[in-house]
Amino acid sequence: MAKIIVLTSGKGGVGKTTSAAAIAAGLALRGKRTVVIDFDVGLRNLDLVMGCERRVVFDFINVINGDAKLNQALIKDKRNDNLYIFPTSQTRDKEALRRDGVERVLEELKDNFDYIVCDSPAGIETGAITALYFADSAVIVTNPEVSSVRDSDRIIGILASKSRRAENNLEPVEVHLLLTRYSLERVKKGEMLSVADVKEILSIPLLGVIPESESVLRASNTGTPVVFNKDNPAGRAYLDAVARLVGEQREMRLAQPERRSIFRTLFGRA
Amino acid sequence: MRRLLDFLFPERRNSAGIAKDRLKIVLAHERTSRDAPDFLPALQKDLLDVVSRYIEIRDDMLRVNVGKAGDTSLLEINVEIAGAQPKPVKNGAAAHPKPPPAPRFEPEPAAPWVKPG
């Protein structure tokens, strides 16, 4: 029986799709059969980030409406046999994603996968609620920045009240904090909220800290989830987060800045 | 070094610290109002109508909140009456039904930058 994980944030542009791609790929690298679903109807982007945009024929909405079979719409990743991408529609609107239809598709996927990773749209409207509704576990993607932290708090509240688990008085959705675009250098200068600050404010367990890194943009430029490129700090941080997600204990290592500041270059190890 | 810089240039005070303080305050407020039932504003208005039949009060002198004390949910109604004027009473009972709504309170003084007229 698959575990359903939603990547959500409230705020847009914090790295939900990048993180969904990286976490799904990371799970697949660990041998878990994983499907990553794009819930952002009308603003499809997971296909680009996963590098399979030219292979999309049928989508989530086609399957919900019965116009295509699930196995016609699922795209098998060319780099890892355990990984599948389930793209969404670019032309329909968010209301096309009806909850009963989504439930039917998820039930069918559950039998064939270990993990179902849902990439939520931004916002707190129908689309985002549908994406988080069936989740067993939620990864709250947050930037160390005031508006992102506030929106994360809001979405944590929504998970606690509007998810299927909340509505049916089941065990609550597990929530995890994934802090992205983190710059240790700026934190040290007092210019950016620290991991400890955000943890204290949101008071949810920390899944991982992804450093601001050139490799993230490079990965989306080329359509390769960042964990598939060896030796980059963001990829390593995502792999650590995935290890924690499957229950391993990993020490939290914070990546050092990629570039040395002028000050450091001039004065050595300051 | 940092402390010295902060001392010399106080305006450099760590903006992350400001962000944290601001977030804590705004979220503390939002978390309590988030779970508030939808009827609260209507209830507040009705209560205000009733109370203002008897005492002159301003809108902001009556506050309704839903909170928690341990395991118990609390509906908390605070009415501030210090300085409120009792309404004239007719025939030993409060005027009822309510007279046409005379201004219950002094209009807010215009902001100093708004020219009268």
Quick recap of the structure?
The complex is a heterodimer of chains A (270) and B (117). Chain A has 270 residues and is α/β, with parallel strands linked by helices. Chain A has 13 helices and 8 strands.
Give me the count of strands of chain A. Answer: 8
Biggest interface between protein chains, with counts per chain? A-B, 17 and 16 residues
How would you sum up the major sheet of chain A?
A: 8 strands, mixed
Helical element count of chain B? 3
Physical arrangement of strands within the biggest beta sheet of chain B? 1-4
Shape of chain A: globular
Tell me, rounded to a whole number, the average pLDDT of chain B. 74
Number of distinct helices of chain A: 13
- Going by helix content, strand content and strand pairing, the class of chain A is alpha/beta
Shape of chain B: elongated
Mean of residue pLDDT values of chain A: 92
Radius of gyration of chain A: 18 Å
Helix content bin of chain B: 25-40%
Features:
heterodimer; A: 270 residues; alpha/beta; 8-stranded mixed β-sheet; globular; B: 117 residues; alpha+beta; 36% helix; elongated
Task: Set out the fold topology.
The complex is a heterodimer of chains A (270) and B (117).
Chain A: E1 3-8, H1 16-29, E2 34-38, H2 46-50, H3 60-64, H4 70-73, E3 75-76, E4 83-86, H5 99-110, E5 115-119, H6 126-133, E6 137-142, H7 146-162, H8 164-167, E7 174-182, H9 184-188, H10 195-202, E8 206-211, H11 214-222, H12 233-245, H13 262-267
Parallel strand pairs in A: 1-5, 1-6, 2-4, 2-5, 6-7, 7-8
Antiparallel strand pairs in A: 3-4
Chain B: H1 2-8, H2 15-34, H3 40-54, E1 55-56, E2 62-69, E3 72-79, E4 85-86
Antiparallel strand pairs in B: 1-4, 2-3
